[in-house]
Amino acid sequence: MSVVAALLVLPGLLGCSRAGRKSPEEPPVSILSVAAAADLRFVLDDIALEFQGKHPDIQVRVTYGSSGNFFAQLTNNAPFDLFLSADTDYPRRLIEQGLAARASAFVYAVGHLVVWVPRDSSLDIEKLGVQALLDPSARKIAIANPRHAPYGRAAEAALRTAGVYDRVRERLVYGDNVAQTAQFVQTGSADVGLIALSLALTPTMRASGRYWLLRRFLGLGEDNRKKDERDHQPQDDRQSEGVTPLELEQ
Questions:
Q1: What is the pLDDT of the chain when averaged over all its residues?
Q2: Count of domains in the chain?
Q3: Considering only 16-25, 53-62, 71-80, 162-171, which range has the smallest mean pLDDT?
Q4: Residue among 4, 15, 75 at smallest CA distance from 37
Q5: Which member of 29, 39, 121, 194 lies 3.0 to 4.6 Å from 155 by CB, making a disulfide possible if both were Cys?
Q6: DSSP assignment, residue 26?
Q7: Same domain as 169, residue 101
C-alpha cells in the first residue's frame, strides 16, 4: 500500500512572520512555520537544520502531527506557511477552498506501509505477512487513526483487501498519527503495528524490530519490485530469504 504525499504553500509564506532582534544591529529574523506529517520527523529535522545553516535569517519551526488534524486547523486559518501532507487529498481540498496557492502543490514522496513487530516477537511476519495478524498472540494491533491519518486509511484498506479486517477489528488500537502508532508497538503497548516504511528504517526501529513490506499493495511491476527489495533490504537476514508477498491487488 502506497501513500502519496504532497507539499503545499500557504498564503502566509508570502510574508513570513518576524521574530524579534537580539540587538538593534542585527537584521530581523523571519519565521517559517511548517506543518508536517508525523512520518517526516526523522528526516525533516535534519533538512531544517541544513536550511537554516544556509539561510540564517530564516528560523524554521516544524510542528508534527496527523495530516487530517492539520487540515482541520488550516481550514480555521492556523498560522502555517508550508503544509507537508501524507496524502494529496487534504492539499487539494485546501486549494479548492482558496486557502492555499494552487500552483504550489506537488508530490514530494511516495510512502509505503509495513507490518512491524519487535525483534523478539513470536509473530512470523517473514512467512505469513499480514496474515500473521490473525495469530492469537497479536492481542493489540496498532494503526494510525483512519479518521484523520492517511497511513491509518492505508492500513485499514490493506487489512480489508487482505480479508482480515473483520477478524482483527476488535483488536485494533489507534495512534493519533503514524509516529505515535510506531511508538505504541515499539514500547510494547501493542504487539504489532502497521506503520510507515520511513519509520521502520530509522536506526532505533531497525535495531529493535523486524518489518514486512506490503509490496503487492504498491502496484509495482516485477522489475520495480526487485529494485524495491534491493533499495530497502531489511536489516534482519531472515527477512531477506523466502519472503513471499501476498498475491493481492491494490
A1: 82
A2: 2
A3: 16-25
A4: 4
A5: 194
A6: S
A7: no
pLDDT confidence of 4, banded at 50, 70, 90? low
| Residues 49, 121 within the same domain | no
Residue numbers of the domain that contains 68 = 2-109
**82-85/58-65 β-pairing:** unpaired
**Beta bridge mates, 35:** 63, 83
Where are the strands (E) in 156-241, listed by range? 172-175, 192-196, 209-213
Helix, coil or strand: residue 126: helix
236 contact partners, CB below 8 Å, separation of at least 6: 119, 126, 210
Residue 247 lies in a domain: no
Give residues with Cβ within 8 angstroms of 44, minimum separation 6. Answer: 34, 36, 62, 84
pTM: 0.75
Asked whether the beta carbons of 5 and 107 are under 8 A apart, the reply is: yes
Grade residue 19 by pLDDT with cuts at 50, 70 and 90: low
- Whether the pLDDT of residue 188 is over 60: the answer is yes
Supply the CATH number for residue 159's domain. Answer: 3.40.190.10
- Residues for the chain: how many in total? 250
